[in-house]
Amino acid sequence: MATANHEPAGFIAWRALPATVSPDAWELKRLWVRPAGRGLGLGRALTEAVLHRAIAAQRKAVFLDTAPASMAAANRIYLQLGFVPCAPYNDNPVEGLAYLMKTL
After folding, report:
1. Cα–Cα dist 63/103, whole Å
2. pLDDT tens for residues 46-74?
3. Which domain holds residue 21?
């Protein structure tokens, strides 16, 4: 969780992926920053924190799905941090998703 001015301002969540998707991989599941916390670098800091934890836990990759049209800022962060397009790895019914992964 991230704070700004001593108040909760954002969060991120992740989970282990089944080995059938990718052995030793995590999925970045949620990234959200309150409007008042946007523009402070919290999204990048939260995402980097998960990547550092994944490396420390000896994960091999981190996957995610995102909606670039409605989550443009998050999508930019992911691409800047080295995530690249990958094949869909889940059955998410949302249209217009981009599937990304980062090898660690």
Report:
1. 9
2. 999 999 999 999 999 999 999 999 999 99
3. 2-103
